[in-house]
Amino acid sequence: MYGKLLGDNVHWQNREAWIYSNNVYTRYPFQGSLYGLPPQVIKECIMGAIEARYGKPDQPKPASNGVHANGNSTNGHAKTNGAHSNGNGHGKSNGHTNGHANGSGRISRLTCEFKAPVNDKGDELLDCCGDGIAEATVPLAAAKDEPKNFEEFIYKVWGAGIAKHFAIPYNRKIWAVPLDEMETSWLGGRVPLPDLGEMIEGALSPKPKPMGPNARFGYPLRGGFQALMDGFLPLLNGTLRLNSRVKTVSPSRRIVTLDDGMEVSYQQLISTMPLPVLIRSMGQEAPTAIKEAAAALRYTSVCCVNLGFGREKLTDKHWIYYPEDTLFHRIFVQGNASPHCNPPGGFGITCEITYGPNKPLPCQGEALIQRCIDDVVKVGIARAEDPVWAANIVDMPHAYVVYDHARPKNVALIREWLDPHDIHLAGRYSEWEYYNSDHAFLAGKKAAESAQGRLQDAPVASA
Questions:
Q1: pLDDT bracket for residue 196 (50, 70, 90)
Q2: Hey, which residues does 394 pair with through a beta bridge?
Q3: Do the Cβ atoms of 108 and 68 come closer than 8 Å?
C-alpha cells in the first residue's frame, strides 16, 4: 500500500518511543524498560508484578488459569502499534492483550500470526507489539477473579507498582473517564506484558533499541500524512467532491443531502462519519431506540496544540508519553517524522491533550497554547529562550472511542438496523472501534468489498 500510494516519497526509520516520569526518560513500554528510574520505583514495579501473578508471600499460589496479555499499548497513545491520522503511534498513543475475555477466565489471542517461542516452563512468549518485549501468560487466582473492568485489569495483570507509577495516571489522563467504567475487549494487541525475566533485565540494564515488525516505521518524506490520502487521487474512478458536508441522510429515500442543498442518490452507502453523527443526520427516520443507542456512545476528545520552535533538533525521539502533571499526555515529534517536516532552523512538535465531560480543558485559545509551551519547557524539550515561530490548535471532538460496558450492545443494535438499508460502516469513528490507521485502511477495503458484493447480487430491474 505504501509503495502504491507513495512510491519513493517515504522515509523509513527506527522507532523511538519513550516515557518521561520521575524526571527521567525510559523506553516504551514502561513495564519492560524500568532502568534509570529511582530504585524504590523499580522495586515497587517488580514486586507488584510478581505479587499480581503469584500472590503475596503469605498467600497460597494461585491456580493456573489466567489471562493472556499480548500486544502493545497506545497512542498511545494505551497504543499504539499504529498511527493516528497525523502519523503518531498510540502508541495509540501512541498506547495502545490481544483478544476478548471469554468464559474460560482467559483473554484469547486473536491476531498473533506467527509461531511463538516458549520459556523454560513451556509458556508461550509472544512479541505482539514488536518492541522486543516478550509477552507471557499471566496466572490469576481463579476464573472468578477475571478483571471486571480496565482498572481491575491494570492491578491484576501489571501489579500495584506499575499501576501506581504509570498505568493508572497515564490512562486516567488519556481516557478522561473513570477506568472502572471501561471494559477490556478493546485491549487486543495494545497492552504489553513482559515476561518477568525480561522485566527484571529491563530494570538492571538499558533496553536495546526496539526489535520486531514495527521497530521501523514509514512516514511520507514530503507532504505529511496527507500525502497518503493524496496518493489515492490518481486511482479513483468515480467523482470526488471536496469541501462539502453531509447535512442529512435519508435511508428510506436513499439520498444524501449536502450543506449546499445538493442531493446525491445512492444504492450502497459507505460512511466514515462518527456513528452518533450519522444517526443524528437521519432525524426522525431513525427509530427512538437507535437514536438512544447512538446518543449513549461515549468518546474522548483531543486538542492538538502544534508548536514550531526556532531551534533545530529539540529531541531525537518520535513520541513521548507523560503520565505525570503536564497538561498533555503525549508529544508527537513531528519534526522527526521526516527530514522535510521542518523549515531551516526550526522544529515542530504536537502536544496532545484529551478532554471530556469529566475532564474539561482548563483554558482555551492562546492561554492553552501558552500552558503547553510552559510545560514543554518544564519537561526540558524546549528552552525558555527558544522563540516560538508558529502555534495553532487542531480540535478533534471525536478522538478516542470509550469502551464502556454498554458499548457492544449499542453498536450491535445500530449496525443491525443499518444493514438492511445498505449502509456500510468503515473506520474508527463509524465502526466505533479503537482503530489505528492500518486498521482503517483494511476497514475501508472490507466496506468496499461488501458494497460491491451487494451491487453484484442485486436483482436487475426490468425495462
A1: confident
A2: 304
A3: yes
For the chain, give the number of residues: 463
Q: Report pLDDT digits (tens) over 339-383.
A: 999 999 999 999 999 999 999 999 999 999 999 999 999 999 999
Band of residue 194 on the pLDDT scale cut at 50, 70, 90? low
Alpha carbon of 116 to those of 20, 138, 211, 355: distances in Å? Answer: 31, 16, 15, 39
Helix (H) or strand (E) holding 437, with range, is helix 437-457
Number of domains making up the chain: 2
Domain extent for 81: 28-204
259 and 147 within one domain: no
Q: Identity (one letter) of the amino acid at 460?
A: V
- Residue 417 class from Cβ within 10 Å (0-12 exposed, 13-18 middle, 19+ buried)? middle
Rounded Cα gap, residues 159 and 153, in angstroms: 9
Residues 193 and 116 in one domain: yes
Q: Is residue 379 part of a domain?
A: no
Look-up of cell digits 521497530: 215
Q: Distance between CA 192 and CA 258 in Å, rounded? A: 44
User: What's this model's pTM, rounded to 2 decimal places?
Assistant: 0.79
Residues 169 and 267 in one domain: no
HSE (side-chain half, CA atoms, 13 Å) at 270: 14
Rounded Cα gap, residues 346 and 383, in angstroms: 13
